[in-house]
Design brief:
With 79 residues, the chain is mostly helical. The protein has two helices and no strands.
C-alpha cells in the first residue's frame, strides 16, 4: 500500500516537475499538486543524538526505528 502519495502513485519529492498532475486551466491553489512545501520548525537540543534527512524512498522501505538503528550502527563502526 502506497500511503502519502497523490492518488497512490506520485511521491511528493517529484511533485514540482510532474505535469501529469497539473492542469493549466486551474489556479495554483486548486491544483492537485503544487510546489509550495510544508515547512516545520523543530528546536534541536543537546539531547538529540543526530538528525536524518532522507528522500521519501527510504521511508517507503524502512520504519523510523530501522533507519535510526542502521544509521547508529554505521556511526559506531565508522562506516
Amino acid at each position: 500500500m502506497k500511503e502519502n502519495r497523490v492518488e497512490g502513485n506520485l511521491a511528493l519529492s517529484r511533485a514540482i516537475g510532474d505535469f501529469t498532475y497539473k492542469e493549466s486551466v486551474l489556479p495554483c491553489d486548486q491544483q492537485m499538486v503544487i510546489s509550495l512545501p510544508d515547512v516545520k520548525q523543530v528546536c534541536i537540543d543537546p539531547s538529540c543524538e543526530f538528525m536524518i534527512i532522507a528522500c521519501d524512498g527510504i521511508w517507503d522501505c524502512l520504519e523510523n526505528q530501522q533507519v535510526v538503528d542502521q544509521f547508529r550502527d554505521r556511526i559506531i563502526n565508522n562506516e
